[in-house]
Amino acid sequence: MKIYITAIFLSLLFTSQITAQTVNTGDLSVAPNTQLSTLFNFDNKPTGDVLIDGNFIAYANFNNDGLITYTNSGNGKTFFVGTQQQLISGAEIAHFQNIVFENTSELVPFHLNTTIEIGKNAEFKNGIVDADSFNGKMIFDQDAFHSDASNLSFVDGKVENIGNLDFEFPVGDQFYFRPSYHDKGANTNNVYTTQYFLKNAGNQHPYTNKDDTIISIDEVEYWNLTQDQGSEKIILSLTLDTNTTPPSFFEENPNTKLGIVRWDDAGQKWVNEGGTTTDLLTGAHYSKLVTTQVGGYGLFTIAIVKQSITPDSDLIIYNAVSPNGDGINDSFYIKGIDKYPDNRVEIYNRWGVKVFDASSYNETDVMFKGFSDGRSTVKRSQGLPAGTYFYILKYNKNNTIIENTGYLYITNDK
After folding, report:
1. 127 and 53 in one domain?
2. What pLDDT digit, counting tens, does each position of 263-298 carry?
3. What angle do CA 284, 281, 195 make, to 5 degrees?
4. Which segment of the chain is annotated as a signal peptide (predicted)?
5. What is the pLDDT of residue 384?
């Protein structure tokens, strides 16, 4: 193991208290299967190069004005732990392979005053990361993800995602974890930034300016989603939580439904993007999910919208699939689709991850049979798990593109 810490010094404060600080001005290397801990404030100077391929544990403030990175030779993990507030700052981006947030000093112990980038995984064990108040940002690199995010630990501020085809943004505000889910399509170069706000969108986005199909808009929360790179329109899923979302949005009405609405800068109004609602599993920190394909970017929230009338069609959509080989509902059957060969069917799971995409869908060979041809984590040979899915059907009828969306239910009964 090679560890070089070029200077460790004690400084006398005006309060006559002694504060110890670990300062690095040269090369510091934490090799795989080794560990380095610092009880004091850590300061990596502009000349400092820190390579973390083992475990690095920070119990106090952490500042980076130099280079912090890792190699793929190890599984480097940086721990921010302790029982006091921790300021994470610096003029340069710190690149961590893995990072763990676990601080029990208070509800919001982490103050992110810089940009940090995660290459593999971030574990949100305990403690909210306040990036909003300190102008910080957390970046998830291609194929990076996170675990354990909840009301106890998430990012209150901007989260950027680079390259992932599908991603849950671990965002929230105040003391509530309110993630959004994005499926980006086929372009891994797309870059998006999301932030959740538990407040009114403000006078610049009046809720009275809206589509005729919008009945009532959630005026106490919204997500700000920007597309920093790319041109595709994503599948977006937003969450509802009884702790933040008004009670009226949980009431069922046969003439209305929930939809996602977006503030359109060009039209200066809220537009209805549509949506399909699913109930989440017991134990989640939010209770419902609304999913739709969006037509733009900016401010999004939930709304109660008019129930759309089913387009005049001779199609019959059977939305139950039980791929058990008994010859009954073995596939997603759309009776009459053969009359409209110019069509496309897309199917997403409840998180907005595309699991099926096919053109010229028909009644014989091009059909969804419960197996993913998308990027699901489920192996194709094992089939998709039972549950509720979301479908988008587009077809050309008399030179008019008609779109149908709705639920699809997969059961694995033997």
Report:
1. yes
2. 999 999 999 998 888 766 445 556 788 888 888 999
3. 40
4. 1-20
5. 85
Q: What is the pLDDT of residues 219-254, one digit of tens each?
A: 999 999 999 988 878 888 898 998 999 999 988 888
Between vectors from CA 293 to CA 253 and to CA 300, what angle results, nearest 5°?
70
3-class SS of residue 19 = strand
Beta strands in 244-297 (DSSP E): 256-264, 269-272, 276-279, 288-293
Tokens 């933040």 correspond to what residue? 244
> Which secondary-structure segment (H or E) carries 209?
none
Q: Which residues contact 295 (CB under 8 A, 6 or more apart)?
A: 233, 262, 271, 273
Residues forming a β-bridge with 60: none
Same domain, 17 and 81: yes
Residues with Cβ within 8 Å of 72's Cβ and at least 6 positions away in sequence, in order, are: none
Structural domain that includes position 221: 189-197+207-308
Residues 119-173 have pLDDT tens digits of 999 999 999 999 999 999 999 998 899 999 999 999 999 999 997 667 889 999 9
Q: Which two tokens stand for residue 262?
A: 């977006």
337 three-class SS:
helix
**pLDDT tens across 375-404, in order?**
444 445 567 888 778 888 889 988 888 878
Q: Can you tell me which residue has the tokens 């994503």? A: 234
Count of C-beta atoms within a 10 Å radius of residue 34: 15
CA 277 to chain centre: 17
Residue pair 67/48 in contact by the 8 Å Cβ criterion? yes
Those residues whose C-beta lies under 8 Å from the C-beta of residue 208, and which sit 6 or more positions away, are none
Same domain, 336 and 245: no
* Same domain assignment for residues 334 and 383: yes
Strand ranges inside 149-190, DSSP E:
155-156, 158-162, 166-169, 172-173, 176-177, 180-183
Neighbour-count burial for 203-230, b at 16+ CB within 10 Å, e otherwise: eebebeebbeebbebbeebbbbbebeee
Task: Say if residue 289 is in the same domain as residue 232.
Answer: yes
CB 69 within 8 A of CB 28: no
The token pair at 33 is 């299967």
DSSP assignment of 295-312, as one string? Answer: SS-EEEEEEEEEPPPPPS
- Please write the tens of the pLDDT for every residue from 18-32: 457 899 999 999 999
In a shared domain, residues 327 and 255: no
The beta strands (E) that lie in 165-220 are given as 166-169, 172-173, 176-177, 180-183, 191-197, 214-217
